[in-house]
Specification:
It contains 2 helices and 6 strands.
Length: about 140
């Protein structure tokens, strides 16, 4: 899937979400980012509100956002920890285990988790929605 199409779909989705929720000019500003941007330039985003598309998996005690759908237990791709008890109680948070999702939250840079397997975390989740992502050729 082309990056432009993914960004356009994510922006359209977020616009619909905030319009539907009645959010006006006071809506928080967020940055739409990709996994590789956070993995390589995480310090630039530390403490900022970001929106990210990834594959969400809830595993006790972890909630994980993957850059790609994991294919086994020994996944070695990019992963972010989703701040478990830091997820705000909101109607804008819809968790669906094993689904592509768009997540808006505050990014915290730095290795976290057992052996630092996550390169950072999203905390204070403001919105999370499952989305449909079609992958494949033209």
């Amino acid at each position: 899937m082309k990056t432009y199409a993914l960004k356009a779909a994510a922006w359209l989705f977020l616009l619909c979400v905030f319009t539907h929720a009645g959010v006006k000019a006071e809506q928080p500003e967020f940055l739409l980012v990709k996994f590789n941007e956070l993995a390589t330039k995480g310090a630039d985003y530390d403490g900022k509100l970001v929106a990210l598309v990834g594959y969400y998996v809830q595993q006790a005690p972890d909630s994980i956002l993957y850059s790609e759908k994991p294919t086994g237990k020994n996944y070695h791709g990019e992963m972010l920890w989703i701040g478990g008890n830091l997820i705000e109680n909101s109607t804008d948070v819809v968790r669906k285990d094993g689904a592509w999702s768009i997540v808006i939250g505050t990014y915290r840079n730095g290795a976290i988790g057992i052996f630092g397997k996550y390169f950072g975390q999203l905390e204070r989740i403001a919105a999370m929605y499952p989305i449909e992502v079609k992958r494949g050729s033209k």
